[in-house]
Amino acid sequence: IGDSGDKDGYLLIIDDVTEQKQQDSEMQQLQKLQSIGQLAAGIAHEINTPIQYVSDNVRFLRDAYEDFNDIISNQHEVVDAARSGTVSEQSYARLDDKLEELDLEYLQEEVPTAIKQTLDGVDRVATIVRAMKEFSHPGSDEKTLIDLNKAVNSTTTVARNVWKYHAELELDLDQTMPQVHCLPGPINEVILNIIVNAAHAIADRVGDSGDKGLICVSTAREGGWGVIRVTDNGTGIPEGVREHVFDPFFTTKDVGQGTGQGLSLSHKIIVDQHDGELSFETELGVGTTFIIKLPLQEELV
Amino acid sequence: MSASTGKKKILFVDDEPNVLSGLRRTLRDQRKQWEMDFVGAGQEALAKIDEAYYDAVITDMRMPGMDGA
């Protein structure tokens, strides 16, 4: 071809990739279902805890209300008697006994705290439910503008039960970050995979010592990129493993702990579906940072 | 049983402070029958048990550091 004139034919190779594409998307769906299944148990526990203390506090408030009622009707008796001119020693004594028996001072001190903790618990449940809704993004299979900070917030909330036993979480979110054009479900999935890995790396390092590691998630705007960094102070990735991190079905986790698909799919999602970059920096015994780079749209920068 | 009061002694363990205070409030009704202590971690619970005899320990299972088992 070209204009040299000495080539008079061409070879056309056609490969139908429909099936391949379909398999990829099925695999992605499967991986998503799997991680959601793993998350579900953790989320149930996260919701159960506030439900438990909300229920205990409301029960306490119900009893406290009855006690207050009791005290008030005793006081009414005294007031009524006073109005008619004679308060008997017995009704004073009955009131004093009542006040002592029910410990009015304790109730007055505890009721406001019980109400506050009840409201805290309800807020907590609402936050978790909102995060689940934002995380799963049902029905949006097309790219939309999303707030990466919100994505980080909801994903870390949904995954809280995975990291909280071994790690503290620190968020450093750039509030000036413009919205990024991407597939919300898959992006959350990538953030989740990386946070779960960070939590596992820390758990491997601290074990049952009671020490807690640290996961830092930051967002930043760097040139034309929206960048998310997830840093852990876990075990770090040993040499010899580093070059296989993004290989499909490669895992160093125990059977049942990892499928070896999380990072390979994450790579596919970031690089193939979003023209972004997914890389990591690691030092053995110090920790690992995963860096997700997503292109910002020109007109928004 | 506590020798001084004749009440049963019960120890509650949970890493979530709000769960502990919720329990403390709802179980206050039992204060004439039970002597109750509330601690936030497995290590604290073991220290308590070293100090005194408890009739029962009621504990959360999943806690940071030391689990309930």
Please give a quick description of this structure.
The complex is a heterodimer of chains A (301) and B (69). Chain A has 301 residues and is α+β, with helices and mostly antiparallel strands.
Structure description:
The complex is a heterodimer of chains A (301) and B (69). With 301 residues, chain A is α+β, with helices and mostly antiparallel strands. Chain A has helices at residues 18-83, 89-102, 104-136, 148-158, 160-163, 184-206, 262-272, and strands at residues 144-146, 167-172, 180-182, 213-222, 225-232, 277-283, 287-295. The longest helix of chain A is centred in the N-terminal third of the chain and has 66 residues, at 18-83. In chain A, 29% of the residues are buried. Chain B is α/β, with parallel strands linked by helices and 69 residues long. Chain B is 29% helix and 23% strand. Chain B has two helices and three strands. Chain B has helices at residues 17-26, 42-51, and strands at residues 8-13, 34-39, 56-59. In chain B, helix 1 (17-26) links the parallel strand 1 and strand 2. The mean pLDDT of chain B is 87. The A-B interface holds A 45, 49-50, 52-57, 59-60, 63, 110, 113-114, 117, 120-121, 164-166, 208-212 and B 16, 18-19, 21-23, 25-26, 28-29, 43, 62-67.
Topology of this structure?
The complex is a heterodimer of chains A (about 300) and B (about 70).
Chain A: H1 18-83, H2 89-102, H3 104-136, E1 144-146, H4 148-158, H5 160-163, E2 167-172, E3 180-182, H6 184-206, E4 213-222, E5 225-232, H7 262-272, E6 277-283, E7 287-295
Parallel strand pairs in A: 2-4
Antiparallel strand pairs in A: 1-3, 4-5, 5-7, 6-7
Chain B: E1 8-13, H1 17-26, E2 34-39, H2 42-51, E3 56-59
Parallel strand pairs in B: 1-2, 1-3
